[in-house]
Amino acid sequence: MKLVEYTGAPLARRAGAKGVIALAGNPNVGKSTVFNGLTGMKQHTGNWPGKTVSGASGVCGDLILVDLPGTYSLFARSAEEDVAREYICFGDSDAVAVVCDAVCLERNLNLVLQIAETAKRLIVCVNLMDEAKKKRIGIDLALLSDRLGVPVVGTAARDRRSLRSLREEMEKCASGGIPRSGIRISYPPVIESASKTVEDALSDRCSGLSPRWVSLRLLEGDPELTAGINEHLGYDITSVPEVAEALASAVGLLNENGLSRDRVRDSLASSVVAEAERICEGVVTCGDPHTESRDRRIDRILTGKLTGYPIMLFLLAVIFWITITGANYPSELLSDLFGRLEKQITRLFFALGSPEWLHGVLVLGGYRVLAWVVSVMLPPMAVFFPLFTLLEDLGYLPRVAYNLDRPFKCCGSCGKQALTMCMGFGCNAVGVTGCRIIDSPRERLLAVITNSFVPCNGRFPTLIALISMFFVGTAAGGLSSVLSALALTGVILLGITATFAVTGLLSGTLLKGVPSSFTLELPPYRRPQIGRIIVRSVLDRTLFVLGRAAAVAAPAGIIIWLTSNITVGGESILSICAGFLNPLGTLMGLDGVILIAFILGFPANEIVLPIIIMAYTAQGSLAGMEGLDSVRSLLAENGWSWITAACTVLFSLFHWPCSTTLLTIKKETGSLKWTAIAAAVPTAIGIASCIVFAAVARLF
């Protein structure tokens, strides 16, 4: 299956394809799960709005399916809603399949009715029928189909067998076997009269668009939508004399009745809601409408004022404890395995009579750093990512965003920044891209600049390794892993606190403004699919991050070995560079080698600690790596203390974003200025915090 990113332009039809079907729907209705089930692709799905900001296309038999971003309405208010609206209204799809949530069908019908006014053909997929059954909600699909005048299919997308009927309806629709929707929403008489005036003037000038729909959009006066209509038609429709005259007459009629364009939009939206209510009467039945749902009872605890934050911190600490405890033994095994393999490779090199410098470059340089990356990074990621994905699959992460909404508002930002911060735990570049869901340009910049304050998955192994080596050995038994988990949780909280502080500072200086409001839907709690969690966390996250780190690790190891063995004036290049940076490093509680490692780790944060190890090893301090104990001994031999470790943790938390993140920031903001600020702000905080911490620690 081929994945194609869609960002607004019509997708080219493929040879042999019978038709193009667009998948639309509200966030959290299982739309991407339906897409995956029909195409066999493994698109990642998330339980928060805005997760998908660009669409993706896949092949289902002879059909092309386009997975559009989740949207509540065609009255676009954000980037992802704008992308969805543009394709639905002006794309080249033969039909739109709207995926609805069976548990809250009436609200989902608002989007169905809006799309019905413009789509060529329409299919309604009522998904999550299994959850509706659990909640004793009954849905008369036949009656709903009769009232809408379009095919209605019930599905439970996690069971692919339930998608067969949907696929059959799509194939019928693509072949023209399904007529256009005949549903017509009734608007207030004055709006109907004004719309009819413009509709008559439009005549046959709409080029495939519904004249009624175009007339209503012109009466609304949305400049972006009007521009989209004109772009689709190839000329300015309002410049046609007959249309301009009719539009002026219609607007005058509306004004005479006290209807400004804003009030026209509100009236249109209210009419859609009323129509959805009418259609749902008798279609949806509840077994016991007075019974409080299980989800809301759980939410009272997980999002409560007194319990929400403690539970959030407790779960975070538990995840880190399991990660640290579960990663120690596999890490030692892998380190031992790679150590023995290094000896065999060395024997092979000498047996082949290879020069010593070649062995040094490839084995002591590239291989050794690569071995460290795999042995120390793989076990923690293999434990952490499934656990984090489990919380995501359960639907808990949106509750975290809900809990953090008020603090972000107090900092002068939008609560949606909490969503982008959660994305940043996986990858800061993804978190930056996710900032598109924030409507306000000012608040979007705040989220972009501060996203790197939460450590991404590339920094977790370094943090875990340093904490395990320097802050765990003081306790015996299981208490050590508990303390280590608490320490890592504290580091994460420090990053979150810095996010709040810098957001508030920027809101009061460079990016002043009033915080906006937003609606966050809390999705239902869903039973996690363990198999998919493992596959997604291992393939999409663990191996992806490990592959990226490995691709950079070997070249970095080679560079370190060469710079430590090529001399200038009797001194190695590495020593010269380290000596140049050493005064600043010492002031920060570090040394020159550590600063060099952060500079060389610019392409990927994952390789910072391996470069430090390699730099020390290349100078002859240690012949091989035999687990964290040997690494700690190596670091101690090179002057490390707990202060050095703590300052390295601080600078790992606060320093410039990786190259991928900065390139993403440049792409998203289109500004070198804001990209530079996004790099300078965390770096300045990192340098200042290290200097202050080192000075205070040395006093005591």
Give an account of the 3D structure.
By secondary structure, this protein is an alpha/beta fold. The chain has 29 helices and eleven strands. A seven-stranded mixed sheet has the order 1-3-4-2-5-6-8, with helices on both faces. The protein has a two-stranded antiparallel sheet with strand order 7-9. A two-stranded antiparallel sheet has the order 10-11. A hairpin with a 2-residue loop joins β10 (about 565-570) and β11 (about 570).
Q: Determine the strand fraction and express it as a percent band.
A: 5-15%
Secondary-structure class: alpha/beta
Q: Multimeric state of these chains?
A: single chain
Question: Which regions have little confidence, pLDDT < 50, spanning 5+ residues?
Answer: 1-13, 44-53, 620-625
State mean pLDDT (0 to 100 scale).
82
State the end-to-end distance: 61 Å
Q: Give the number of DSSP strands.
A: 11
Write down the Rg: 29 Å
Taking strands numbered 1, 2, ... along the chain, how are they ordered across the largest sheet? 1-3-4-2-5-6-8
State the helicity in percent bands: 55-70%
